[in-house]
Each structure stands twice: as C-alpha cells, then as structure tokens.
Amino acid sequence: MCWSKETENWTECFSGLKLACEIEWSTKNDYIIYDFQKLLVVNAEIKLFIYQYSNKKNREKINDALFKATKPFLNKTTEIIIAASGNKDPEIYIYSLTKNGIVLEQPLI
C-alpha cells in the first residue's frame, strides 16, 4: 500500500510517496526479511512494515536482521516503522527507526 503526495491536479503534480507499507503474515524468517527488503528500496518518507512472529526469541532474531538491514537506507528524511505482532501474543511491538537511532515504543495491548 502507498500514499502519494500530489496536488489537486494529481495527473500532473505527483511529487513522491508519503507512505509505503508492506505486510508479511508468515512467521518464517526468510519470508519476513524478503518482504522487508522490498520496502527498503521504495523512496517514501515513511516506510511501514508489519509482521507476525511465532515467539519472543523469533521476534528478537527477526528484529536484529531488520535493524541491520535498515542502516544503509536511513537518511534525515526517512522514517521506518516496524510493527510486530505475535500469533499467540496479544501485544503489538512498535519500533521507529530514523537516522538518529531505534526507538522501541511500549508494547500496545
């Protein structure tokens, strides 16, 4: 999903993407990382990635891989938001990644 930036005359004044979003509901690490990599190459101000994990250890392993993958793609005008949901866990973890670092928002219940 994408939200574009444009004026009233959208056919002539497309000026980029405000938001690009990718979702992966498989809990397999390779599928999650593959979908996340697709999002990294999109030129958008905000990149939102939503994925599902199978357990806490799995979430930590996936996050390590995702956080490392973002480093070459973060600049002063880009924010990457990652939302992680456990398939048997009621909490949703929200991470905000910018050039200044990674912020873990408290889990949402």
Strand ordering within the main sheet:
1-2-3-4-5-6
Report how far apart the termini are: 25 Å
Tally of discrete structural domains: 1
Structural class: alpha/beta
**Average pLDDT rating:** 85
Strand content: 35-45%
| Proportion of helical residues | 10-25%
Order of helices and strands: EEHEHEEE
| Tally of DSSP helical segments | 2
Q: Give the biggest beta sheet.
A: 6 strands, mixed
Number of strands: 6
Rg, Cα atoms, Å: 15 Å
Instruction: Write down the overall geometry.
Output: elongated
Summarize the structure.
By secondary structure, the chain is of the alpha/beta class. It has two helices and six strands. The longest helix has 15 residues, at 56-70.
Describe this protein's structure.
A 6-stranded mixed β-sheet has the order 1-2-3-4-5-6. It is an alpha/beta fold and 109 residues long. The protein has one domain (17-104). It is built from 2 helices and 6 strands, in the order ββαβαβββ. A hairpin with a 5-residue loop joins strand 4 (79-86) and strand 5. The mean pLDDT is 85.
Main attributes?
alpha/beta, 25% helix, 109 residues, six-stranded mixed beta sheet, 6 strands, 2 helices, elongated
Which helices and strands appear, and what pairs or packs with what?
Layout: E1 2-4, E2 17-24, H1 29-40, E3 44-53, H2 56-70, E4 79-86, E5 92-98, E6 101-104
Parallel strand pairs: 2-3, 3-4
Antiparallel strand pairs: 1-2, 4-5, 5-6
Helix pairs in contact: 1-2
